[in-house]
Write a structure and sequence with these properties.
Length: 381
């Protein structure tokens, strides 16, 4: 006979097979009919603990809705309803890759409410070791940054499920992801600067390259600049948009990466003079740096290829276009700019990120400051 318990606490009984069973009402369906669940254990104490845990979870979970979703169904629902309308097209491509090639094959058939931290951990381990797809089915591992991106997306997806009472907690929360790789940052060496700028001038793109080294603009921001974005009187450039490659070809103009990326950047008179001279070459073109091929906007990838050509022609070590952004930040910090100013010019979301990214530059500044203070104080000895 079932042991009577207080209302809402379920019931416990010993079955004929010797096991103990706990029964409880997990919720109600759309018609109001109770959704009955049970747990089994070898001992009465064990089933009591299991029953207590399931009752706590059932208060957090809407079982009528939770039973509708496998991981595959929920992750696509979340992506289309919550994520896709609010992320850039390039990020959409990453998310769809995470879902199609990793989450669905590994976890798709699992009921969402039964997903465990261990299963999530196995997913991350598999992607890290064998995530790269090959025709023979023998994939190599994906990068640490890729796994961390997958983790960020999956956590966002599962945290939404918690808010909608589909699961009691986020099983990805306790999964262990690889620590970020500490990659050596590349910048344009000071001894290579003359040759690099000379080659840019020979190719008639010096104003664009000089602006990049003076501001650290992202290549998409650089490509999307219009002449009207420059205020000659205040010597400022207003960054309000960014160009990005579209899936299937073409380029799309978006808002910059973050809210802080919409910004005013001050430039020197040398930059102003170069930009005016550049504009005089094509006064009727709205773009600050129109493509010499199409007359329209430069493709961001074309700017990257241009950087590669300049370096190769000048006989210099290859660095990415993005590394010119790092070059600007490093030079600015090493020449006395404060971290908050550099952060705002780069359009970073917070100065702490800038500080962590350019520790090497601030360390050099500390060494210089320490030497100056040492000389100053030694005069009083």
């Amino acid at each position: 006979m079932a042991k009577r318990r207080a209302s809402g606490e379920g019931s416990i009984r010993k079955r004929k097979d010797g096991r103990w069973e706990g029964r409880y009402i997990a919720g109600h369906d759309e018609t109001g009919k109770p959704i009955r669940k049970n747990v089994l254990a070898k001992t009465q104490a064990e089933v009591r603990d299991k029953l207590k845990a399931m009752l706590e979870d059932s208060r957090k979970v809407d079982m009528a809705k939770a039973d509708e979703y496998t991981v595959e169904k929920w992750v696509w629902t979340w992506y289309k309803l919550y994520a896709k309308p609010n992320i850039r097209e390039s990020t959409q491509e990453y998310y769809e890759s995470f879902i199609r090639f990793h989450i669905v094959p590994q976890l798709g058939k699992t009921m969402l409410r039964k997903l465990t931290t261990r299963e999530v951990q196995k997913l991350y381990n598999h992607v890290r070791e064998h995530g790269r797809r090959k025709k023979d089915g023998k994939g190599e591992g994906m990068s640490i940054s890729y796994v961390r991106g997958l983790h960020r997306m999956l956590r966002s997806c599962l945290q939404r499920a918690v808010k909608e009472r589909l699961i009691p907690y986020d099983p990805a929360d306790d999964a262990i992801v690889p620590k970020p790789e500490k990659l050596e940052m590349k910048t344009l060496k000071s001894e290579d600067m003359d040759a690099f700028l000379a080659e840019a001038k020979r190719r008639e793109v010096l104003p664009m390259i000089f602006l990049e080294l003076s501001t650290g603009l992202r290549k998409g921001e650089l490509a999307a600049l219009l002449w009207e974005d420059l205020d000659v009187e205040t010597k400022q450039i207003h960054v309000t948009k960014s160009a990005a490659r579209q899936k299937g070809g073409g380029v799309k103009i978006n808002k910059p990466k973050t809210d802080n990326s919409i910004r005013f950047i001050s430039v020197g008179q040398e930059v102003i003079d170069m930009l005016i001279e550049e504009h005089d070459r094509h006064p009727d073109n709205p773009y600050m740096f129109p493509s010499p091929v199409t007359g329209g906007m430069y493709y961001p990838d074309a700017i990257s290829r241009l950087n590669t050509k300049i370096l190769k022609s000048a006989g210099l070590e290859h660095i990415r276009m993005h590394d010119l952004r790092h070059t600007f930040a490093t030079l600015a910090l090493q020449n006395g700019a404060d971290i908050k100013t550099v952060s705002s010019m780069l359009g970073h979301s917070d100065a702490g990120f800038t500080l962590r990214t350019y520790t090497h530059a601030t360390t050099k500044g500390q060494e210089t400051t320490a030497a100056k203070l040492g000389r100053l104080l030694s005069r009083h000895l």
